[in-house]
Structure formats: structure tokens, C-alpha cells
Design goal:
It contains 10 helices and 20 strands. It is of the alpha/beta class and 346 residues long. The strands form 5 sheets. Strands 6-7-5-2-10-1-11-19-20 form a 9-stranded mixed beta sheet, sandwiched between helices. It has a 5-stranded mixed beta sheet with strand order 13-12-14-16-18, with helices on both faces. Strands 3-9 form a two-stranded antiparallel ribbon. The N and C termini lie close together (8 Å).
């Protein structure tokens, strides 16, 4: 089995999230593009940042280019369209010029009029990314690939994409053990259980819809907490905790400080609910510590992790044994398919 068989036709929008720069995200993207082309699947491509340029503008390191076939739907920006006539770039048919702006100009929806290299980009927010994905599907794409990153991981949010591929690699850390531990933590965070109680899901959904933070007691009664942000709201929430508090619904992010404060001041056991796993910002060490304090996290909507890809090479010059790296990832995370797209291992 290869990646495209895991992805399509089960999903229409799929994000690829890198655990670090040079973790193999673009290589993974190119592999899926090639596999989709072999199966005749018409693609749409978009990025939460910018990808496809020959050199990274921040690190000045070489990057793998993105090559597409004629007919591919591409979201890009005005500032890179001028390069389409040189360096074997694909010619572009402009389908739509949006009002969304970036430092390189307006976001543009195009169709590749020839085979060639492309640079992809996108608008600045996850809601607009989702809107552009829907537009690409309307223009005939059968599968849209969202090039994301861990620092812009909202592309993995369930309301944006149907599933996510995690690209991890040696660039995350010099130690294979540390890379595996960090990758496992990301998978663990993305796999937080969904809130199961039906009527509580409805109540929590309404709270999120109103962008509020609230407490739900064991009888389903709601007490709203007046706060502008959940980043430093632990003490305020703690002041309102009662013996019958069953759920704490956070409109924003789940962070170590706020959760620790709540747990240390709790009068009963309760579950902490966030909208989806991309709202959880807790380090691996803090996650284990908070679990020992009794943390129970739940999400309203979960993330579908389709696969993990590995890159055993780092641009800093060190590398891991590719087969050992792949085998260990599969051993530690056995329930998610893992691929070495660099070496071709499956």
C-alpha cells in the first residue's frame, strides 16, 4: 500500500504537517503528487506559508522544488507568477484573483497550463485556507493537499482538512530517541479522545460557537467565565470551580499554566475540553506531569492522522540509519502507517 491509497478517495482535503524545518514535508508532498498523477487523481495545492521556492528565504538552504502536471489547480500569490516563464516553471492560467493579501501580493487561484515547477502559497488564516480549498474543489480538483507546518498547525484542524500526514525527521533533533519521543508526543496530542457524551457535546458545541469559556456541571448547567483569553485564565476559572463541576470548556488554547492552576484548585474531577487538538500547547514533559495531577483532556472534534513519513537526513550533515528509524517509529506508533519517502520504504 502507498500513500495515495490511504488518502484517496477517503479524503478530499489533506494537510501535511512538518514537525520541524527540513523534516521531509515537501518530499512527502512530491511523493503524493507523483502517486496521484499515476492514478489520474486531479490535485489542488495550497500552502499555509510559501513552498516550492528553490532556496529557503530564512535559512538560505536548498529546498526540493514542487513539480506538477498540466491541469493541477494551484493557489499562489501575485509576486511569484512573474517567474513562470523561466527555470522550467509551469505556465499558469489564472482562474481567480482574490482579495486576500500577503507580503507578496494577492492570493491567486490558477490552473497549470503546462507541466513544470510551481510555488504555492495561501491566505493568512485557517478559515481562508479552508475557503480556498473549497474553491479548488469547485474548479475540479478531486483532492486538495495543504502544505502546513507545526507552527501553523491549524491546517490540521478538522474544520480545514479531512486528515493529516505528519512528516518527521532527523532535523527535529540530533538524537533518534529524542526525535521519536517528540514525534510520539505530537501524535499523542493529536489523538486526544473526543468528547463522547452526546448532550454534553451539544452544549460544548454551543459554547464554542459563541467563542466563550464555560463550566458545565454534572446536571448540564452552564456557567460562563468572562475572559478575553484562556492563556492566563487558570485563576479566574479556579475561583468558579465547584464540587459538581464536570467539564471546563476552553474557547482558546489549553496551556500548561492554566491547566495546572485549575487542577491544583479543583474540588472534584473534571474534564477539560478544547475545540480540537490544534488548540493544545503543552510540552511532552508538562503533559506527563499534568496527567499525574489528574488532567483529562477531551476535544470536540479529533484529527484523523493518516500516516507518518520520515526523513533520516538533516541539512546540518548528520543522519540516521533509515531502516532502524522506520522500524522504531513503527514499533512506538504501531497503529499509524509509517513511510520512508526518501528511501522509498513502506
Amino acid at each position: 500500500m502507498n500513500l495515495i491509497e490511504l488518502i484517496y478517495p477517503q479524503n478530499r482535503i489533506v494537510s501535511i504537517v512538518g514537525t520541524a524545518k527540513n523534516a521531509g514535508k515537501t518530499v512527502t508532498l512530491n511523493e503524493i503528487i507523483a502517486e496521484a498523477d499515476a492514478k489520474g487523481v486531479k490535485l489542488g495545492l495550497i500552502s499555509t506559508g510559501r513552498d516550492g521556492e528553490r532556496r529557503d528565504v530564512l535559512t538560505n538552504t536548498e529546498k526540493p522544488p514542487i513539480y506538477v502536471r498540466k491541469g493541477t489547480i494551484v493557489t499562489t500569490v501575485e509576486g511569484v507568477l512573474t517567474d513562470a516563464s523561466k527555470n522550467n516553471y509551469a505556465a499558469m492560467e489564472i482562474l481567480s484573483v482574490t482579495s486576500y493579501t500577503t507580503p507578496l501580493g494577492r492570493v491567486v487561484l490558477c490552473r497549470a497550463a503546462s507541466d513544470g515547477y510551481v510555488e504555492i502559497s495561501g491566505p493568512p488564516s485557517s478559515a481562508l485556507i479552508k475557503h480556498m480549498c473549497d474553491n479548488m474543489l469547485d474548479f475540479g480538483a478531486q483532492l486538495v493537499l495543504v502544505d502546513g507546518s507545526l507552527d501553523r498547525r491549524a491546517s490540521a484542524a478538522p474544520f480545514v482538512s479531512d486528515g493529516t500526514i505528519i512528516a518527521t525527521g532527523a532535523s527535529l533533533a540530533r538524537s533518534m530517541d529524542l526525535v521519536i519521543d517528540k514525534t510520539l508526543h505530537i501524535v499523542r496530542t493529536y489523538s486526544v479522545p473526543k468528547l463522547e457524551e452526546g448532550y454534553i457535546r451539544d452544549i460544548a458545541g454551543d459554547i464554542f460557537e459563541n467563542n466563550k469559556t464555560a463550566l458545565i456541571d454534572s446536571h448540564g448547567n452552564v456557567k460562563y467565565i468572562e475572559t478575553q483569553t484562556t492563556l492566563q485564565c487558570g485563576e479566574l476559572i479556579s475561583e468558579n470551580l465547584r464540587e459538581d463541576t464536570a467539564y471546563v470548556v476552553l474557547s482558546g488554547s489549553a496551556t500548561t499554566d492554566s491547566i495546572k492552576t485549575m487542577l491544583l484548585n479543583r474540588k472534584s474531577d473534571f474534564k477539560i475540553v478544547v475545540k480540537d487538538p490544534t488548540r493544545i500547547f503543552i510540552s511532552a514533559a508538562d503533559y506527563l506531569s499534568l496527567q499525574k495531577l489528574g488532567m483529562e483532556l477531551r476535544v470536540l472534534e479529533g484529527i484523523n492522522i493518516i500516516a507518518i513519513t520520515i526523513n533520516p537526513y538533516s541539512p546540518e550533515g548528520y543522519y540516521f540509519d533509515s531502516q532502524e528509524f522506520l522500524n522504531r517509529i513503527r514499533s512506538v506508533i504501531p497503529n499509524i502507517p509509517a513511510f520512508d519517502v526518501i528511501q522509498g520504504g513502506i
